[in-house]
Amino acid sequence: MFTGIVEERGEVLNRVSRDGGRLVVRAALAGELALGDSVAVNGCCLTVVGLGDGWWEAQAVSETLARTNLGELAPGSPVNLERPVRPLDRLGGHMVQGHVDAAVPVLAPAPELVVGLPLHLSRYVVEKGSVALDGVSLTVAEVGEDYFRVAVIPHTMEVTTLGRRTAGERVNLEVDLLAKYVEKLLGGRGPANTGPAPATAAPVPPTAGPAPAPTPGPPER
Asked: Which end of the chain, N or C, is more open, meaning fewer C-beta atoms within 10 Å of its C-beta?
């Protein structure tokens, strides 16, 4: 689990083919990593499989490259890096899984960053809600039919990749995880729950007691 607060802007050292391969990243935090650690790269959770002096590498499979912008990276490309949140850390952004939902096009650059919004994800994006773009936690300022806008402050533009994104480039979008769970819980009867409601037992009538004693009549003469 991540928070969308970027720790470092690393540098890609190689290009990964569409069939998959190892992505090598130069970063100061490499000295604090161990094999098997997780690192979010532009918001995509990857596992450390190799380490060197000032660099680390992760395996990027074809599925990851097809769903994210990692396959578009070239030597020298900057990437946003974040390690998982620890139990005692402050949750400065919002809960980010590192599971990218889509790579979406930039329509207008920061500071008023506008990106495309796929129809199948539009119900999860709301004004004043949270999204992650290239792993950066941001607040939605405006939502349109097929786009949304976020305001990027100067500090975020300086320390992440968002200040360098131009129209036509793609950024990784992860919508708010909580919205998906709320939809699942409130979505009504799903396929697994269709069918008649279970029968309820008929009420049991109360047990009859003894018949009342007859009312005595007048005495016989």
From this structure: C
